[in-house]
Amino acid sequence: MSFQFSEPFPRAQMKSDAREALRGHWLAAICIMLLYSVFSYLGTYAMMKMMLPGVSLTDFMFGSGKLMQQAMEQGPALASNPQTLAFLGLVGLIVGILLSGIFQMALVMWASAIAERRSDETTLGAFFGFFSYGLTGALMFIWMNLWLLVWTLPFTLAMGVIGFLAGGNDTITTVAMVVIMVAMMVVIIWKSIQYSMAFYALAQDPDIGVRRALRLSIERTTGHIRDLFVMYLSFIGWLILTSLLPPVQLYVMPYMTVSFVNAWRFLRPGGIDAGRTGLSVAPEDASDQRASAPDMPEAAPLGLPSEPAPQDTQEDTQEENK
């Protein structure tokens, strides 16, 4: 399908096209979100069952007094056994990574098919087929969050040093801590937006690998951080409503995902494979596909290493040096 953008960053058009693209596919979208909700719920219950063996699914679902009683009885025993807590935390982390990465990858690939009107890949069966890329999705999830963790380290160390040297709770120390925390939040939001298109790049072509996908996301979001931030804010009302009425998530998540697929299609004219996206590339973009500049590692603050450059870029540089 030919999809022409009418503005520098047509947020409203991206969202309206997402709603239009989802027409006729809402049953599959709702089933997908229900499936994710069930798996998430059962995963949480499994973790609870490991900590509190006597808790039934009914107790967990309806929050009966038995659940609270079990927690009060076995809580002190768990607290006195750090090895068990560490093991349960590790298991929960692994399950969370696998579930989040696998589902996110499948959902974005399915949403890409919806946005690009590839009707043969928009069915519920096609969504299940995308689970074959689950390992790639899990690796992408790990790689993104690993770099977000790296960016928090300077601020965490700074707060630790200030807390150690100050020793007290004086006003200057408190103000310094607040300033550092605010700065950390700004950086995390900034980097999260920079990394936000990585899954969408990977969905276009899973063979590029997670490192290349992250570099593409950083490159293509440069100059559009504010646009994407405002686009996320445009969904804030829906997200608040979802927190009050969880079933609303069945509508909001597919709508948001397809909208951001359109954002990626705008940021990456022609996509990684122009034949798949079907986008109409403007003449001035056709010559370079917005990829004329080589991918260079991003400078990191405070001596931190930059996100690794993709292997193909390094090989190209070696050939040029020869």
Automatic annotation (TrEMBL):
Question: What keywords were assigned to this record?
Answer: Membrane, Transmembrane, Transmembrane helix
Where is composition skewed (Acidic residues) in this entry?
Answer: 313-322
Q: Which Pfam families match?
A: DUF975
Q: Spell out the residue ranges making up region: Disordered.
A: 278-322
Its transmembrane ranges are 21-39, 85-111, 123-143, 172-190, 228-245
Entry protein name: Uncharacterized membrane protein
